[in-house]
Amino acid sequence: MAAPNECQADDGYDTGGTAGSRRRRAVSGTDAGAAPLLRATGLHAQYGESHILHGIDLSIAAGEAVGLLGRNGMGKSTLIRTLMGHVRAAAGTLTVRGANALALRPDQIARLGLAYVPEGRGIFPNLSVRENLLMAARAGNGGRRDWTMEKVLMAFPRLAERIGHGGQQLSGGEQQMLAIGRALLTNPDLLILDEATEGLAPFIVGEIWRIVAAVRASGIATLVVDRNYRSVLAHTDRAVVLEKGRVVWSGPSAVALADQALLVRYLGV
Ligand SMILES: Nc1ncnc2c1ncn2[C@@H]1O[C@H](COP(=O)(O)OP(=O)(O)O)[C@@H](O)[C@H]1O
Ligand SMILES: [Mg+2]
Fold first, then answer.
1. Rounded to whole angstroms, how far apart are CA atoms 187 and 147?
2. 24 inside domain
3. Which residue's CA lies nearest to atom 27 of ligand 1?
4. Taking CA 183 as the corner, what is the angle to CA 247 and CA 33, rounded to the nearest 5 degrees?
5. pTM, two decimal places
6. Whose Cα sits closest to atom 5 in ligand 1?
7. Domain count of the chain?
8. Can you give the residue range of the structural domain that contains 224?
9. What residues does the ion ligand 2 have nearby, CB within 5 Å?
């Protein structure tokens, strides 16, 4: 079969019961002893015959900022897509807020509090900026509405200027901002950014990182992939390095930044 091993949103079931009862758990980063927001163990994934992820262990605590590093083709996007349920895991476990996420559809996983901005964005080109934002907006876990339309427009003044424009009329940078704005309006517990600055002009790149910093400061956990490893390490607490679908290093971002041998070995920088 040529098609990748995508989850077809078929056999998921209602999350209302078991996950809902756990939703009240505190999401503060200082909530020592609580189950992590997300925990993957021994995660495998493949596209057809090609085996891409070979037993990934990954934990993200509430409010934690994690950088996912590794050269091109090492499985970063595949890992993220597996976490979000877009690629079906071949083996392993995945819990999000205590719920078995491997039994859930992508939309159900998102509703547990994960927001994902994929490579190449994902906005509605035929809708206006306002419509794109409005249709994404919802309360987060525990009814949180920290990120409102107003707050997103304050964070991204360029979107405010383009509020009535269609998605297809936006520049690449504005589309990326809209995609991040949409993600924030779901009031997530974890924001996942895959190559959010790819192909953008330097001054827009700076704005994206400014937002990443603001999101981190607001207590939302982040999982960030970006070609610019220095920016990733500067905006995260911890880094995880992938090589050929395996975690080959993980530790404090500051340690990675200071370890030139590690950076050369795994990132080729
Ligand atoms: N849809 C797909 N079908 C088949 N192979 C894929 C698909 N997407 C990615 N791959 C392969 O999986 C491997 C990991 O890719 P990817 O997860 O995109 O890596 P990264 O994000 O680290 O660059 C690569 O060898 C890539 O060619
Ligand atoms: Mg990728």
1. 6
2. no
3. 73
4. 50
5. 0.88
6. 47
7. 1
8. 64-87+105-267
9. 76-77
